[in-house]
Amino acid sequence: MTLIKDIFFRSHVVELDAKKPAVNSYDEPVWPEHLLAYDTETTLDPQGQSLVFGFYRVCRLQGGSYDCIEEGILHADDLQPTYLDVITRYVQDSASEVVSSNYDERIHVYNRSEFVERILFDAIRTKALIVAFNAPWDISRLAVGYRVSRNRAWTLILSQRISRKTGKLEPNPERPCMRVTSKDSKAAFFSLTKPVRPEEWPTYTVGNKTRIVCRVLDLHTLGWALFNEQTSLKGACETLHTKNQKLDQEPSGTVTIEELKYGRQDVRCTVDVLNSLKEEFDKHPVNQHRIELYPDRAVSPASVGKAYLRAMGITPPKDKFVVPHNIHGIASQAYFGGRAECGIRNTPLPVVLTDFSSQYPTINSLLGNPDVLIADSISLEDVTGEVRNFVARITLVDCFKQKHWKTMKFFARIRPNNDVVPVRAEYHDDGVTKNIGVNYFTSSEPIWLSGPDVIASKLLSGKVPYIEKAIRMVPHGQQKGLRPTNLRGMVEVDPRKHDLFRVMVEQKQVHKTSDGALSYFLKICANSTSYGMFFELTPQNRSNLVKMKVFSGEHSHEQSVTRIEKQGEWYFPPIAALITGGAHLLLAMLERCITDKSGHYLFCDTDSMCIVASRSGGWVSCRGEPRVKALSSKDVKQITKRFESLNCYDRRKVPGSILKIEKVNFENGEQIELFGYSISAKRYVLYRYDPNGNIVIVDAKAHGLGYLYPPKDTVKGDPQSDWILEAWHWVLEGEVATPRPAPEWFRVPAMMRITVSTPAILGMLKGFTKPFNFVHVPLLFPSLYPVGKDPSNFGLIMPFSKHREQWLNTKANDTHSGKPYSIALLDPQGRTRKIQVKCYGNIMGAYREHPESKFLGNDGNPCESLTRGLLRRSHIVANRHRYVGKETSRRWEQGDDISMADFRCAEYGDGQMVADEKTRKQIVEKGIRKTARETGIHTDTVTLIAKGRPVKPVTLAKIVSFVAHRTDD
Q1: What digits encode the pLDDT tens for the residues 825-872?
Q2: Under DSSP, is residue 290 helix (H, G, I), strand (E, B) or coil?
Q3: In the chain, where are the structural domains located?
Q4: pTM of the prediction?
Q5: Topology of domain 34-284+291-297, per CATH?
Q6: CB 677 within 8 A of CB 731
Q7: In what order do the strands lie in the sheet with 216-218?
Q8: Residue 818: pLDDT band by 50, 70, 90 thresholds?
């Protein structure tokens, strides 16, 4: 079946008339002498979650760690007298915990206003580090108001004064406000606005602009940057084995002696965690040679990895290479993300899971990308004839020879005619999501692919793509200033003579048993420096139209936009596109190895492929098919053995194949019979049977469920309490075992926990709460809104609560009107007047029916909810070629904060833009006339936008802002 679709290509976008990066005079010590650590407790109402009280500690750096030199309590300005009496009694009965009697031994007590003025602003004036675990939350508790700023930012008002003109409270212009910009659910950036007398505050300059020094350290973010793991304060204390451990207590939103003990312990834990993280941070010698990595600016594992590259003296490619923008456009068009797909759907089968070890670092080494990173210059050479001959001759066997991989460092313009290549399209019907499927593709217009993707196409289709032109990136010389460094202070790497990716992978393996912490860091560093940073883009809003030039393939045009994509420090599309192309080639090679033995794969996911296989092999039943062949364990081992030739490491340190049989296939050192079941891309489960014939799940993916608040408490280390495992048991037992009753939590209302981390999220909630509050949002049935209500004028929000048994008895408020409503589960008889909401059972029923929309069923029809068995690649015929920026982030589906859900993919047209399907539907829902009236845009223009016609970016921006109820500018 042929599908005609618009095709989307990534673009390289350049701001015309952009100013050169300004000189930055920031020069602070990595760890300042003093810090202010604090933690707050709040009311429990969803609208307020306002400050009740908190504890703080001023600490001084002494002997490598921070010791308490002042301690105190802060409380709400309007705290009721009975609560103040409790605080007074607690202070009288408690001793201060300052490090010595040389310091003030009182436990100070300040109301919020006094704390901000005397303690917080004093910390800012002395350039102290302001420390909290989840800093955006705790800082926002001190705010008395807020303003919305561009680029996902809040401006939090910390100080007020009586206006001389009105006699009312107004923001104090003599004090800075705190601006908080959410990067994602793991990190935020902090800065201060300029007060009327900035000379009274510590400043530095960026170009000709003066900025106030603002040092805020979120320990949650630093932990993520150092360990690549998200955790709570309690989890951090347990993992780091701190002296103080968090107390188990459910906050009440009041002030009692027990609540005060709980709050004081939290700030003790905060300081302990800070000192433990500081000890780990200081093991990285990245701050030599004045290559500063500040703990308060380490926002991800990549931050640490990039600091090591700077410490080695490696200049970012875009700063040292003269590469025309059209070349970056070619590489951007050739850039596709990881390959993830389901090959056999809703069918239980025996499997063996295989995985490419250290996939991205290995690809970098095979392609010779480290040579590019340290090169003095590069050239782009026309190699059309050479590449045509190379691709025509190359075979699967040749791909297993390392010498051919460096030859693959090219880009080719092909005219696709039923070639198997990555295709980015709207496979779903939502009109928003742009997924990548490796499908048969035909286009009257040529496209650019990376060399590895061209070769993968030949392996998968059996035909040589028609190559019109090819260019190769060739490095020359070695840049000056390269120098060695020591990874985590223990592993030397010298870029002048070492392949840094090989060193990290080899030493990771060497230290795996002797030094687990070092081995784990090397794994994180290798992965964080080997891929994502080369295509790092940060969307930013501008107040005025900005002239841009868009490059994709050989297409280019100029246009004006209000939303740009700021390129990261190490942005360099030619490397990024080759890396992902290399990953596609490895999977294509593995797929060919399987199909050459008449086998099949159940699913693949970026660096892994699940092979249909059993101990002895043979034919197995497959729904929708008479049978399919399962490879034997011997077959699989032979396949993994073939990839040993691509092991580019020192075999004494990293022996064997780069393709591993994953640990889940083994128990007590023996390979077991493993089974798999896949619904769609990234929705799969692996399981075995115990001696009694019961299902035992060994690996389950929560993709598409992570945005939900868990319907039951999970006990660490207890699989029986894991709701994801229980959900998959329910799916499997309906397929391969006697069905059991659904879990009790199936009848719990389905909730999302939303953190109001951006103005867009507050807009979704119609301003019903405050910045960085967290609330529950029940999921509604589209067809069961109250009369006259729809998603544009009705939405529910509830207080956040862990007590799930109380959810149905808790009032929810309409975010538009504030009116309270009672909620109930679906009543098929229609006997309730309450708002009927989805339960987790409704979610799971839809979850197991999610189609693999990128593929067709084996009957040649589109894959649908009831499609089972073998799937086939679609044949996509290009309609329009469209040019886009960063794809819609869907990380929230996997458990990240819903704050990422407001992001939309930027599309670039020839000076004009087209509304996506979701926006067009929203226009129709709101009404053409209403949209025109509210936006001031002519009705005829709104009608054209709703029909998918291109318009000026500024016009479309007004429409999108209106229909999406955005509040940011």
Answers
A1: 998 887 788 999 999 999 999 999 999 999 999 999 999 999 999 999
A2: helix
A3: 34-284+291-297, 682-851, 912-969
A4: 0.90
A5: Nucleotidyltransferase; domain 5 (3.30.420)
A6: yes
A7: 107-111, 65-75, 51-62, 34-42, 129-132, 216-218
A8: confident
